[in-house]
Every structure is written in C-alpha cells, then in structure tokens.
Design goal:
By secondary structure, the chain is of the alpha+beta class. Helices cover 50% and strands 6% of the residues. The chain is globular.
C-alpha cells in the first residue's frame, strides 16, 4: 500500500478514535494476483459458495449434445428464428470440439481444452458456412450452466448481449429484480450495461445464483478482474480500474447487501488504519527483541500523537534508523551503536535511494535522539521494562547545531517559490476562468443546437453530432450526452469538459480567496456557511473552516469573489431541486472515514459520487501548468501546488497592511512565526507592521483591560464598515486602520469597485486622458508619469470589474418574504 501519510503536528489529534483491524487475505483465481497489496478493510475478498448449484435446466454436466443444442435453441426463443437456429448449430459445433478432449463431464472436457484454459478464443475455432463464429455457442453453454469458465476466458471474449440472454435463461426473480433496479438507477447507459455484465459474469465464473452473491464475492471479482486486465492489457491505464463499482452501488441500494456493508466499493477497498504491528512489520527487522522494544516504544508514544505522526515516527526510527543500522551491521543486538557504524549510517541516510540528496535529515536525527532520551527517562520510572535497553545516544550534540540555520534555508526556499509564482498567479487564474467560460457557453449553445447543424463560438466552427453509440442509447430510451465536433474533426464530450472546467475553476478560486489548506477545502460542507447580520440589515457571509492541522475550528469572512464561488458550487448540486448529497470522506493521512456530510467539493464520476481528493486538485494544477507552458515559457519549470495559493494569500494580506496576528488567525496558525515564514515579499514591511501593532496594543489595551466588548464598541465596529463605503465601491482596509493612501482610491489596492460604477471609471479615464494631453503639451514630465500610473491602475480595476460581472448570476432559490395579507 503506498504510504500517503505525512506529519501534521506532534501534539494535535485530528481524530480521537481509531479503528484497527487485522485481516488475512486470500486470492484464488485463474490469473496471477496483482503486485500491489489488497487494501481491504472490514471485508475479506473471497469467492462465494453456492448454497444450491444453479441449474435452471437441470443437471447438464453429462447431457447429450443434441439435448443441450435444443435447449440453446429454446433459450433464444425470444430472438429471431434465424438467430435461434444459429445458437443451436453453434452450440452443437462447440460441443463437438469439446468432445475431442478427455473427461466424463463437459466441465472436465472444457478445462482440458485450450479454449477453457484461455489459450485461444472462440473466434479461433473458425466460422460456419454463414460466416458466424462459435462465440454464440460458447455463450449459450455459459447461460445454460453447462460449463463454468474462468474470469480470464470471460475477459478475453466480447460476448455481445450476454447479460440479457443470461438473465432470461436463469428465470431468477432476484436477478430480474436487480436488472430492473439497474434500469432505473441514475447511471449513464454504459455504466448500467457494465453493472449488468459484472454481476452476470461473476455468477457464471463463481458458479452461484444471485442469492449467494456477497460483498466478499464482489470484492474478489473486482481484484480478479483487475489482475486479468493486467494480463490482457499490460501497461494500459484502465488495467488498474476495479470492476463492479456500479454493481456494488445498486446491490447496496436495493438492500441485497447487509446494512453494515460500506455504501461504495471504494469504502470497502480502503484498509483503514494499520495496527502498530503492521506498521512496524512493513520494515523488516531481523532482531526480534529490538522489534519488540520498538513496538513498546511506539505504543507508549501513540497516546500523545495522531495516526499520521505515528506513521512518520515509525518510518524514521524503525525504517530509516534501525533497518539502516542492521544493513550495515546485521549482528547489532542492542542500542549501543559504535561511532563508526553511526557515522556510516549518517553518511548513507544523507542520500536517498534514487541517488538524490535527502533534504529532510533533521527530522530523522531528532526522532532517533528523542527515542534514546525517552528510553532513558522511562527507565527511571519503569526500570524492569526499559533499563535493559538504556544506551548512550549515538547522535552527538554537534548534529543539532545549525538546525535553526537549516530551517531558515527551508523558509528561504519557500519564499523564493512564492516570489516566483506570485506574478504567474493571474495567468493561471485567467486560464481556468476562460476555459470554464468557454466550455459553459459552448455547452449552452450546443444543447440548443440541431444535430449536424454547424454553429460558431469564439471564432471556431462546431457541429453537434451523435455517434453510433449515442443512436443506440436513444433507441433504448436512454439520454445521449452532448457531443460536438470542431473544424479540425476532434470529437468533444462537452458536458464532461464543462464539468471538469467548473471544478478546476472552483478549486483555484476557493484556494486563492480563502487561504485554506487543501484538506480544509475538500472538507468544506453546506454546513460551513454561516452569516452575521448587522443592525442595518447588511449580511456578512462567513465560512467555517473545519480543523485539520491544529485541531482548531476557525471562521473567516467571505469576500464577494469567494461567496460567488461557494454559491455556484451549491447551485450546481441543488439545480435539480435536490439537497447536497451526503457523503463520507476518507482522510488520506489518518486513514479514517468521516460521518456522512453534505461536502461541497464532490462530483459524480462514472457511477459513483465521491468527495474530490487533494491528489485530483494537484493533478489538475499540473495539467493547467503544462497547457500554459505552450504560450508562457515561465510555466515550463513551474508547477503550482494547493499550498502555493495559501502562501501567496498570506503574502498579499500582510503586505497590504493587515496586522500579522489577524493573518495568523485567518490562516489557523498557532504560532505567529509560522505566518511570518509564509510571507515572502517585502519582509521589512512585515516587521514594521508587526512591531507597530505590538506597540499600539501595549499602549491602548493593557492586559487587565481585556474584557467583553461593550455595546458602544460593537457600534463602533459596525460603523467602521460604513466608513469603508466610497464613491466607487468599498474599501477593504483592515479594521481599525485609517486610509493610508490619502483617499487616492483609483490607485489603492484595497478598493473593491462596484459593477454599478464602471461608467464612473470611464468618466475618470476621459478626464485623466485630457489632463495627460494638457501635461504633455505643457511639458510636465512628472505629471505625465503620475497620470500614466493612475491610468494603468484604473484600467486594471475596470478590467477586473468587467471580469467579475461576466460571472453568471447564481440563484440559490432563497424564498422571498410574503406580502402583507397573503395566506
């Protein structure tokens, strides 16, 4: 299992409960098991056992070929007469082929044949006089339960129409109920077809009836299918996809699975938290007494740390340290490490396995040093348990010299990263915004367009088309997706493109306007939105950020841009009149599932709705960076991560005059020095603002005066926001600060222009142009320079305001007050 855990803090506990389970895994099938470990949770994957062998036409294991051929003809009675005859003749030919092999039953002959061993396919047996292959005959034997194929045989063949023929032949009311439930499920047609095929394939391969289908059997089928696809299509992307996900959703929804079964296959596949023994045994340790010591040590440390930090501690001490020591000296029996062995280990640990220098050496060394000193301390209280292991710490004090300097170097690299990405952020924002606008508008036009009729959008010609698969869906009464073909012939599934573009835009806008961590963004739910109503009736929107790293919930005021994004997300979920769906989110760090909540950043991919993961956002940002690199060379060596938005957000806040302690509160930092480390630009401004704030606070509000706010102070607080209203819009300066730009609002970065005042900006621009013309005629060079700067900033503000007005209006469906006298 890939290790996705990373340290949060040494003292925080994001989840006070833990779930640990021990499982043994079995994997029996005709294909080799995949190389990756089976990451199972509460359910062990194993094939089902038939309570009663399913024999819809009796025991045909040794029946005469003519009887089986006749039954194959009868099972196809609903088909055309010619098709039914083809089924009978093809089944007869397949049975004649199997008759060449040894065995007293058809199953034994099947297993002895190259066809049954998946060495050849039915199409390799040739065709009849009408050009028909033997696939229909093989399929008929499966439907009649004459033979039981392996999964590899099923995956090698493309049995068209197999689920419908199989369901009709079984005469199983439960299976027919399942098929009816699939037909009414909120899936696309391909996923409905796959849900039917997966269940029918499982019943044939495992030789069971629908009543014997269990979650464990479906999990086994998913893993075996994955391994089979890896054999048939090695290296293909879809080879790692688990089969049966849509089937699982239907089986759970119809109540076929027990109520305690996870609602989705993804929940069942996640292993959850590992036990301490499993964590330690991921790193092979020869010396069993040392292994037991480490288990005891980690058990003691487990009480004061969270799971993610515990995983890191095990990795540092058990893997990096002790397995490294044993690799150098396999006979090492205690913690008394000779200086030469430690020096060799220290030199080796400074280089990663791929040959690159290791940057994070200090956490490993500090963890080792803490391990030794913890054992020393505990030995004084419990000598019978720890005293035998007391040994001199091999880490010399010189190792810790320069730690502060190295941390400063890390902060400097982070600051350089922020400085490099800050000027590129507008380009990225414009890119995702334009892509969303383009796909949204194109979808609106294409949805209203007539099939095969050309139309133009953004200077390109498109034509709405329906593929052969779409026509098949339409004939079956299934809705067809909106597809267009551009003038280059490229086929575009515009609904999927618009969906992806929307969530890319929503993620970027939320991250850059809120400063939230990526985990915090993914955990935003419908319940996170609050409001504060002022006495004058004005509503201030608030966003509650759930605790992630510091176990402290915080509330941040939402800007107009952030509120628009959140409102757009809510409207997308509720546009059909439904509430935001309740989902459980898996925490990749702590390996636990959240309770069902209306998470906002969720989307439906395929047949399953799930919360967007941080890795999905990271992949999306990397994709946009590659796209931008074609026109902007700076993006060739730059990739944005979600945390870059948080650092840029902090930098812009503090350098715009916001007191740094308020910035720390908005970001959820417990230590103000952490916030200082986030600020990359104009560091002298940070220090000046911080010291000025401290001096003012000491003079104005001594410690003994900290008390509850009075009504006059609350009124003053509200009046502050009234004083921020200016002619062109609103001033965004921090609370309690006067205007620092001498009311030069057009130049001020704090000005938030109201869309209603765009015409006023046009008037100001005309006046400035006229003044510049006069200044140029008079030779006032200094005046020209100032006017040019003002014009530049005015036009930038106008363009930004125009951009915000192009955002579609979001109707949240808020009810209006009833008029007086209404019933």
């Amino acid at each position: 299992m890939p290790d996705l855990a990373r340290s949060t803090t040494g003292v925080s506990r994001r989840h006070t409960h833990t779930h640990t389970h021990t499982h043994t895994h079995t994997h029996t099938d005709d294909v080799p098991a995949s190389a990756d470990h089976l990451a199972l949770g509460r359910i062990e994957a194993r094939p089902a056992l038939a309570s009663t062998p399913p024999r819809p036409f009796g025991d045909l294991s040794a029946a005469a070929p003519e009887l089986i051929a006749t039954l194959a003809h009868g099972a196809s009675a609903a088909a055309a007469a010619r098709t039914a005859i083809q089924h009978r003749d093809s089944a007869r030919r397949v049975l004649a082929y199997l008759g060449r092999f040894e065995g007293s039953t058809w199953q034994q002959r099947w297993d002895a044949s190259p066809l049954g061993r998946a060495e050849i396919t039915a199409y390799d047996l040739g065709t009849n006089r009408d050009g028909q292959d033997h696939g229909v005959g093989v399929r008929a034997l499966f439907c009649l339960r004459v033979v039981r194929p392996t999964l590899l045989v099923m995956r090698k063949h493309n049995f068209k129409g197999f689920p419908l023929q199989f369901i009709a032949a079984q005469s199983d009311p439960l299976l027919e109920k399942y098929a009816a439930r699939v037909a009414h499920q909120d899936f696309s047609w391909p996923h409905k077809r796959q849900a039917l095929y997966d269940v029918c394939c499982l019943l044939v391969v495992q030789g069971i009836a629908f009543a014997d289908l269990t979650p464990a059997a479906l999990l086994h089928h998913a893993h075996a299918s994955r391994a089979a696809k890896a054999v048939l299509r090695p290296g293909k992307k879809d080879a790692k996809v688990f089969a049966g996900r849509a089937a699982w959703n239907v089986l759970h929804a119809m109540g076929h699975f027990p109520a305690s079964t996870p609602a989705t296959m993804r929940e069942a596949l996640h292993r959850g938290q590992l036990t301490l023994e499993e964590l330690v045994d991921r790193h092979p340790i020869r010396n069993q007494p040392v292994r037991q010591l480490l288990l005891s040590y980690f058990q003691r440390r487990k009480a004061d740390t969270d799971y993610a930090s515990l995983v890191n501690l095990v990795r540092h001490v058990a893997h990096h340290f002790w397995t490294g020591i044993e690799a150098i000296n396999p006979e090492q029996a205690d913690l008394n490490i000779p200086a030469d062995i430690y020096s060799t280990w220290r030199r080796q640990i400074s280089v990663r396995h791929d040959g690159k220098p290791r940057i994070g050496i200090d956490p490993i060394v500090i963890a080792v040093r803490s391990f030794y000193y913890d054992v020393h301390t505990w030995a004084a209280d419990e000598p019978e348990r720890w005293a035998a292991w007391v040994a001199p710490c091999p880490v010399p004090p010189s190792e810790l010299r320069g730690v502060a300097k190295r941390r400063r170097r890390i902060n400097e690299r982070s600051a350089d990263r922020t400085r490099l990405r800050q000027p590129l952020l507008p380009l990225l924002v414009r890119h995702v915004e334009e892509r969303y606008d383009h796909t949204r508008t194109l979808l609106e036009i294409a949805s209203a367009a007539v099939i095969d009729t050309p139309f133009t959008h953004d200077g390109r010609t498109f034509r709405r088309v329906m593929t052969a698969e779409d026509h098949t869906r339409a004939r079956g009464g299934h809705p067809s997706p909106v597809r267009v073909r551009d003038n280059t012939g490229q086929l575009i599934h515009i609904e999927a493109e618009e969906e992806t573009a929307f969530w890319d835009w929503a993620a970027v806008e939320t991250l850059r306007h809120s400063g939230a961590r990526i985990e915090e963004m993914c955990e935003i739910s419908h319940l996170s939105i609050r409001h504060y109503q002022r006495k004058n009736g004005e509503m201030v929107a608030l966003l509650v950020i759930s605790p992630s790293k510091t176990d402290r919930e915080r509330v941040i005021p939402m800007s107009a841009e952030l509120f628009h994004v959140i409102a757009s997300v809510i409207r997308r979920h509720t546009r059909d009149g439904n509430a935001v769906p309740l989902l459980r989110r898996f925490d990749l760090h702590d390996k636990v599932w959240s309770p069902p909540m209306p998470f906002l950043f969720q989307r439906k991919i395929g047949s399953t709705r799930s919360v967007i993961s941080p890795n999905t956002v990271l992949t999306s940002l990397a994709r946009h960076s590659r796209d931008l690199a074609e026109q902007h060379p700076a993006f060739r060596s730059v990739k944005f991560t979600p945390h870059d938005f948080r650092r840029i957000f902090t930098t812009e806040l503090v350098n715009s005059g916001l007191p740094i302690h308020i910035g720390a509160t908005l970001l959820g930092h417990l230590n103000i020095q952490t916030t200082r480390g986030y600020v990359a630009v104009f560091d002298e401004d940070v220090i000046r603002h911080y010291l000025a704030h401290l001096n003012e606070r000491r003079q104005v509000r001594p410690d003994h005066e900290y008390r509850a706010a009075t009504s006059d102070e609350l009124d003053e607080f509200e009046e502050h926001f009234d004083k921020r209203k200016v002619e062109l819009g609103a001033c965004g300066r921090p609370y309690g600060t006067p205007c620092q730009h001498e009311h030069a609002c057009v130049r001020c970065p704090m000005l938030q222009v109201s869309p209603k005042m765009i015409s006023r900006l046009d008037d100001l621009e005309a006046d400035l142009v006229a003044r510049r013309t006069r200044a140029q005629a008079e030779g006032w060079a200094g005046e020209i320079e100032g006017l040019d700067l003002t014009l530049q900033l005015l036009r930038a503000k106008r363009d930004d305001t125009h951009r915000r007005t192009r955002r579609p209006t979001v109707d949240l469906g808020i009810p209006t007050p009833r008029a007086a006298g209404e019933a």
